[in-house]
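Contributing: when you submit paired examples, paste them exactly as shown. First protein:
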Amino acid sequence: MSRPDLESASNQMVRNVPLYRQKRKFTCGPSSLMMVMSRAGRAISAE
C-alpha cells in the first residue's frame, strides 16, 4: 500500500468513527492513527 492510499484510508476511517474523535482517544492525523493501530495490532497478536 502506498503512502497516499494509507493516508486516504486513515482519513476515511476518522470520518467513519467520529465517536473516537469526540472521546479524544487519539488526535486526528494519519501518524497518530497508525500509532493506535500498531498498538492494537500488537495487543491482538499477543493473545
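Second protein:
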Amino acid sequence: MIFVLLSDLNTVGLKNRCQSLEVNYFISSPLHSNLLGILSVRIAVRKVYRYYALSYPLFWLSGLYLIFFIPYFLWFLRSAAVRRNALTDGFLIFFLYQFVSLVIGFFWNSEFEYSRAPNILHNMAVFLLIPAGYLMCARQELPQLMLNFSRRLLVFFFLVSCLVFIYTYSTKDALVLAYPWTDVYLSRVGFIGEITIPRVSLFAPYVNGTAILSFLAYSIYLHKLDESRGLRLLFGLLALFIALFAGSRIVVFSIAILIFLSFVRNRLALMVAFISLPIFVYLSLEMNFWSVVQSARSGSSETRLWIYQVGLALMYEVNFLTGLGVKPFIDVIPDYPVGSHSTFIGYVIKHGLLSLIFLFLWFLFVVKVAADKISKFIFRKIGSISAIATMPVALLVFMFEDIDAYELNALLFGFLLYFWLREDSLNEKSA
C-alpha cells in the first residue's frame, strides 16, 4: 500500500491532468490506477498474473495503460465463452454494436479527430470491465476474499480519508473543490447559458468510484452475521464518512438507507422503509434541508440538463439513427463532453436510437430478476438485505455516471451486479 501511495505522487505533476481543475490528486489516482492491480494480485491463481498485475502502475505512469487491458479482453472473451449467460451475451453484443458505430462515425463525422482514436478505443474497452467484474465475482475467489477483508478495507479507506482531510486542510485551508465554479458556455442549437458548479470532494475526480467502493465493502461486510450491532453500526458510519467526503450524494443516501435496513428484520417494516426513505430524501431536498447538499445538487443538475438537451438536439439534427459517434463534438462544450455524467443518455447520444434496443433488452433482464426477488421478499439473512440494497445503487450509477470513461466505476458496477443478482449463492457459501 505504501508503494501504491508513493508511486502516485509523481502524477500530481502531470500538467495534462491538472490544467483545468485546481484539485488534489493525492488519493484519486491511487484508487483509480492501482485498484485493478491490487484486486488482480489478491485473486490471481498463477504467479505470472500477480507480477503482471503489479506492473499496472508502471503502465499507467508511462501512458501505456491501453496495452495493459488487452489480456483483460482476452480473459473476458474466454471466460464469457465458457460461462455464457444472458448478461455476458448482452454485453458482448452491445460491444460489437459500439465497434460498428465507431466505424460508421469515422466516415460520417467530418469533425472527428483521428488522433483521439486510442482514447476512444480505451473507453470502449473499459465498458467490457463491467462483465469482467461480474465474472471475477462468479469465480468465487473475489467474493470470499471480500468477505474476509471487508473490515480491513473499510478501516484502510477510513484512515486514508482522515489523512487526506488533514493534508488538504493544512495545505489549502479549505476542502478541495472537485468542480470549482466552472463556467460552462452552451451555444449550439439555440441553447446559450452560463452555469457555475460548486462541489466539495476530497477524492476528485473519481468521486463515485471511491464512494461505491466503500458501499460495496460495507454491503459485503453485512454478510458477517456473527458481528454485533455495535460493530455493524460503527463500520456503517465509516463507510458513510468515506462516501460523504467523496462528495457522492447518491451513495451517501444509499449507505444511510442500508445502515437502517441492517437493523430491521420485520418484513412489513422493510417494505415501509423502502417506500418511505426515498420519499423522505426527496422532500428533504425540496424543503431546502441540508443547504450544502441542496445547492450542490441544484447546480450540477441544471448543468447536466443543459448538456443533455444540447446532445439530444445535436443527435436528432445530425444522425438520429446511429448517433454522433464516440465522444462527439468536443468543441461544442469544451469542458464537458456531450452526454457526460450519464452512461444511459451518453450512449443514446453517441450511438443513436438503435442503441435503445440493446439498453431496453438489458433493462428488461434487470427488471425480470428484480421481480423474481421482490416476489419472494423473504430476508432470512442480513446479507440478503445488503445484496438487494445494491440494486438502486447499481441502476443509479448506470444512469448518472460515465461508466465507459472510468475503469474503476465499470469494474465496481460489475461487482454490484453480481452481489445483487447472485446473493443467494453467496449467502449459502458464507453461512
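If you have annotations for the second protein, write them as plain sentences, like these:
The beta strands are 184-185, 194-195.
Residues 90-430 form one domain.
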